[in-house]
């Protein structure tokens, strides 16, 4: 397990905390202050449990069954039944990093003292994360309203010693057995606890945080790829000048243009056609407008990040304990704010991939690539060159366009029309994760083609920044030559893109990109 540690207090966890726990197996500790607040808020729940007046989530059924008053002797069964019945997911298992992010975010809400759980319940969430035990959660089951009910219920099922978990090495084990091996014991839920563990937007929020983290790298990579395409296709860098960007002062656009300019600085290829005798007046939109597209993507992500940060600072539960000890129903579990930006980012991902594919296609078309061989082939006709790499891009981009259709525009009523409008935010998050994977692959293929196109401009040489990226690619994929098995080379460059190695190669020469 990791030596790093994340402390969960009464305040919100950070983006870095979520990533550290989800992806780097950071240990999780609840602060003494948070444990004290959790314990003090529990007193209000226990007092309400003794009252004759029904209180939702404490002494009643749930959802459309909230009119049923539950006697003391059946309340432990009520909580168990809630979790068992709501752990109704199906489909493929959700990725480990998503489940760990979701667990941390639910724990963060528990630690605010607004949910009324006991300290031992909150502590077991921290202990499971620290032990690397990840409950099995399935793809389908959340409507993104009343929280991510089914996914969070599968986690709670493991906490009460039922269902299955995967250990840090991926071994599937019954939850109770895996906990016992690590000296942990399941919790028997008391009043309100089962409901408090499943009534949050933590699944969709965790995926939003992880997606925004991935996009930070991909936005930089999009600029790197665009610069390589501009260079390899004998485009001009003049359109990226700062004074031109200031005429339309979107902040992301200026950042993207500055990155491309730095990548092209010192390029003998660009310098070779910079004179007044160059017959080309304007580059195609996919080259010239790269900062406008990638910049708008950044600005959209900035908005999404603001929403995510507000959500990280929120207490999502129903009912919730107020500062003066009231237990009040509310609608804060509705996932609309998160669902909208998840869908917005799916549009961003699809469009970034679309403009990347267009730049790649220009490399391969002899009518538009300004003197390069058709399809960048070594011996055109005998060799097909990079022809089918664009097909691969096109297949992915087509799917990303379908995934850009908003999930949040849909709603299917549930719970006998009590929950008659839902966000579908979990679905928005799932398709965004697929979209980010697709964008990574599309950008990697553009870099692979751009590297080949630039090398075919020899004896002209590239800019130091683009040359560093080409060197990184050539450690895993061969340069221009006769046709060869391309899938492994594509896979290797995709991995370089995913891990940030391509961006780091560029930054090792030009300095930090933004």
TrEMBL record:
Alphabetically ordered keywords of this record: Histidine metabolism, Lyase
SUPFAM superfamilies per UniProt: L-aspartase-like (SSF48557)
Record pathway: Amino-acid degradation; L-histidine degradation into L-glutamate; N-formimidoyl-L-glutamate from L-histidine: step 1/3
Subcellular location: Cytoplasm
Tagged with keyword Protein transport: no
MF terms in GO: histidine ammonia-lyase activity
The protein, known as: Histidine ammonia-lyase
């Amino acid at each position: 397990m990791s030596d790093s540690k994340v402390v969960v207090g009464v305040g919100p966890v950070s983006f870095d905390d979520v990533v550290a726990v989800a992806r780097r197996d950071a240990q999780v500790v609840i602060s003494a202050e948070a444990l004290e607040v959790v314990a003090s808020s529990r007193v209000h729940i226990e007092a309400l449990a003794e009252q004759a007046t029904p209180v939702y989530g404490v002494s009643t059924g749930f959802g459309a069954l909230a009119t049923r008053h539950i006697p003391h002797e059946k309340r432990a069964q009520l909580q168990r039944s809630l979790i068992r019945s709501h752990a109704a997911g199906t489909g493929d298992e959700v990725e480990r990093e998503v489940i760990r992010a979701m667990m941390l975010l639910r724990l963060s809400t528990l630690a605010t003292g607004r949910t009324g759980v006991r300290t031992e319940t909150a502590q077991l969430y921290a202990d499971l994360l620290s032990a690397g035990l990840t409950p099995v959660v399935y793809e389908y089951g959340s409507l993104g309203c009343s929280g991510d009910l089914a996914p969070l219920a599968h986690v709670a099922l493991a906490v009460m010693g039922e269902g299955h978990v995967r250990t840090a090495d991926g071994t599937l084990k019954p939850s109770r057995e895996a906990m016992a091996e690590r000296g942990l014991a399941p919790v028997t839920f008391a009043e309100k606890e089962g409901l408090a563990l499943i009534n949050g937007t933590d699944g969709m929020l965790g995926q939003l945080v992880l997606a925004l983290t991935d996009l930070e790298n991909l936005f930089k990579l999009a600029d790197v790829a665009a610069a390589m395409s501009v260079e390899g296709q004998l485009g001009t860098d003049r359109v990226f000048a700062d004074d031109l960007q200031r005429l339309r002062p979107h902040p992301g656009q200026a950042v993207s243009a500055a990155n491309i300019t730095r990548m092209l600085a010192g390029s003998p290829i660009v310098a070779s056609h910079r004179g007044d005798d160059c017959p080309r007046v304007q580059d195609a939109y996919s080259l010239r407008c790269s900062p406008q597209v990638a910049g708008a993507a950044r600005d959209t992500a900035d908005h999404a990040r603001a929403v995510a940060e507000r959500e990280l600072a929120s207490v999502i539960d129903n009912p919730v304990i107020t500062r003066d000890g009231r237990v009040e129903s509310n609608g804060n579990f509705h996932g609309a704010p998160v669902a909208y930006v998840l869908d917005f980012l799916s549009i961003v991902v699809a469009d970034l991939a679309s403009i990347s594919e267009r730049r790649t296609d220009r490399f391969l078309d002899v009518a538009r690539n300004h003197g390069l061989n058709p399809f960048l082939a070594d011996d055109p006709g005998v060799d097909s060159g990079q022809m089918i790499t664009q097909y691969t891009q096109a297949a992915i981009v087509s799917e990303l366009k379908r995934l850009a259709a908003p999930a949040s525009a849909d709603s299917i009523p549930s719970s006998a029309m009590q929950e008659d409008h839902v966000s579908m935010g979990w679905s928005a998050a799932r398709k965004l994760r697929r979209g980010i994977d697709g964008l990574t692959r599309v950008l990697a293929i553009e870099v692979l083609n751009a590297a080949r196109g630039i090398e075919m401009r020899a004896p002209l040489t590239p800019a130091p920044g683009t040359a560093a990226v080409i060197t990184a690619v050539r450690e895993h994929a061969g340069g221009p030559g006769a046709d060869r098995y391309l899938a492994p080379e594509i896979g290797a460059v995709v991995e370089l893109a995913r891990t940030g190695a391509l961006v780091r190669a560029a930054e090792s020469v030009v300095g930090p990109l933004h």
